[in-house]
Design brief:
The chain has about 290 residues and is α/β, with parallel strands linked by helices. The protein folds into three domains: about 40 residues, no CATH class; about 140 residues, D-Maltodextrin-Binding Protein, domain 2, CATH 3.40.190.10; about 90 residues, D-Maltodextrin-Binding Protein, domain 2 (3-Layer(aba) Sandwich), CATH 3.40.190.10. Helix content is about 30%, strand content about 25%. A hairpin with a 6-residue loop joins β4 and β5. α3 packs across α8.
């Protein structure tokens, strides 16, 4: 018999195993049963008790950036390494994952003060720090340009010239960074990442700026365009929470550090098959989640 059978519960407990009989006193039985009951009724981590009570975590996600999330036009499924890590967070908390979708990553900030989401997936930028707090970053990749194959622009240093128009997704990291960096070139802002590529294809911009993984993926469909080898910045993607949610931030920060150290983030990147995406090194100070 492989199952353990409870034979006596008043004075002595007998557990029958395949090769031995174990007798326990009533006191030990009470302790064991109490421990099992406590484990089954364990209170949620107080830092995310509100999420557990609601039964869901709302995740703000800007569509169109492959390292973060793109949406399958047929199935509607979201995929991307950053999104996969969000799935793991929801599983760790033990709640449903509810995507709150925006047409581009930069538009996610519109929901920061409107209580539209509990956590979002965004690149770290100082201009966003007044409204949100950042977890440790977990994935990183370059920011660079795509130009026509025959363009005289060969590297980043050639870009900032009078008359050069650069298409960018409005409010995204490339927009924020270049707005601070450029002196002569003009930014042409689009309301989505596909619209940005349309500006380039139709000649309304000489080049477009974005993430290297996203530009490389798009260049496979645009043989008349190429991606520059160098970069004008590096983007660090983190989970963010609106200001005033220190408990959520602490829990998520612990989770991110553990996800990096365990290999979960690396596995998400490998599943995506994207080029140019890397794991940010663990900070080494992760706490212990409950």
């Amino acid at each position: 018999m492989n199952a353990r059978v409870l034979l006596h519960m008043k004075r002595t407990i007998v557990l029958i195993a395949p090769s031995k009989v174990l007798f326990a006193t009533p006191l030990i039985a009470v302790v064991l049963l109490g421990a099992l009951t406590a484990k089954a009724q364990q209170s949620p981590d107080p830092r995310i008790a509100d999420l557990v009570a609601s039964g869901k975590v709302r995740v703000g996600v800007g569509l169109g950036s492959p390292p973060v999330a793109i949406k399958d036009p047929v199935t509607g499924e979201l995929r991307g390494p950053a999104w996969d890590v969000a799935r793991a967070l929801a599983a760790r908390v033990g709640v449903a994952l509810l995507p709150v979708e925006y047409p581009r990553p930069g538009a996610v900030m519109e929901g920061a003060q409107a209580n539209a989401w509990d956590v979002a997936l965004l690149g770290i930028d100082p201009s966003r720090a007044a409204q949100v707090d950042f977890s440790p970053p977990y994935i990183q990749y370059d920011l660079t340009y795509m130009v026509a194959a025959g363009s005289s622009i060969r590297n980043v240093a050639d870009v900032d010239q009078t008359g050069v128009r650069i298409a960018v997704p409005r409010g995204d990291i490339s927009d924020l960074r270049l707005s601070r960096m450029l002196k002569r070139a003009e930014l042409v802002r689009a309301n989505s990442i596909p619209a940005m590529f349309d500006l380039l294809r139709t000649g309304h911009a000489e080049l477009c700026a974005g993430t290297r993984p996203g530009l490389l993926e798009e260049s496979a469909r645009l043989p008349d365009f190429r991606v520059l080898d160098d970069h004008f910045g590096v983007i660090l993607v983190a989970m963010v929470v609106p200001k005033g949610h220190a408990g959520h931030l602490a829990y998520i920060s612990d989770f991110i550090d553990q996800a990096k150290a365990s290999g979960l983030v690396q596995q998400a990147i490998e599943r995506s098959g994207l080029r140019g995406v890397q794991v940010v090194a663990p900070t080494g100070n992760s706490g212990t989640q409950k």
